[in-house]
Amino acid sequence: MDNFEEVKPEENREFAQEQDGTPLVISEDLRSHIYEMAKWARVLAIVGFVFSGFMVLASFSAPTIIDSVSQTMGEKNNPYAAIGGSGMMIAILLFALLYFYPSLMLFKFSNLSKSAVLYGDQENLNAGMAALKSFFKFIGIVTLVVVVFYGLIVFLAIIGRSAG
Questions:
Q1: What is the maximal distance between C-alpha atoms in the chain?
Q2: CA distance 133 to 98
Q3: How many CA atoms lie within 13 A of 31 on its CB side?
Q4: Is 104 exposed, middle or buried (0-12, 13-18, 19+ CB in 10 A)?
């Protein structure tokens, strides 16, 4: 690495990690940004909790709806009759749980980060950032699973079309 000079951090630089292991300095601007992020994360978490609750309520009404549609239209005309009301209820409950976890991580991030910024608590800031990391990790994994699933559907559709 002969082409690179060693650059020393300026003494008045807001975000300086020194070589001797002193912690990262958090400026007032960064504290303000974290506090604002925590407020919006709380709003999104509460909306997520509400939607999860609606999904749970909808799951308990799914068996009744599936059965009444099957009786009205006949089981041949109801695409959900094969799954059944109980199967649909379990599927919706799983989606509600899938939606609840990221909302919980956002809520934890919000509470811990807000507390860390207000009281200067490094442990709460670390825990809040860990919750935010868990949120993004979960969303990333779910996104990858969905993309792979869609890719598999497209692949199978192309193979089915060429075979038939």
A1: 79
A2: 17
A3: 14
A4: middle
With contact defined as beta carbons under 8 Å apart, do 69 and 80 qualify? Answer: yes
- Give the whole-angstrom CA distance, residue 61 versus residue 66: 9
Q: Please name which of 65, 44, 62 lies closest in space to residue 54, comparing C-alpha atoms.
A: 62
Rounded Cα gap, residues 11 and 17, in angstroms? 11
Residue whose entry in the numeric block shows the structure tokens 């799951």: 59
pLDDT score of 7: 42
Question: Contact at 8 Å (CB) between 86 and 60?
Answer: no
Residues 6+ apart with CB under 8 A from 30: 14, 15
- Tokens 């007032």, located at residue: 28
Query: Residue written as tokens 């079309």?
Result: 161
Q: How many other β-carbons are positioned within 10 Å of the β-carbon of residue 117?
A: 22
Residue 36 tokens read as 């604002």
Q: How many C-beta neighbours within 10 Å does residue 120 have?
A: 11
Residue ranges for the chain with pLDDT beneath 70: 1-23, 75, 77-80, 164
Buried b (16+ CB within 10 A) or exposed e, 1-14: eeeeeeeeeeeeee
How far, in Å, CA of 47 to CA of 21, rounded?
40
Domain boundaries, the chain: 39-137
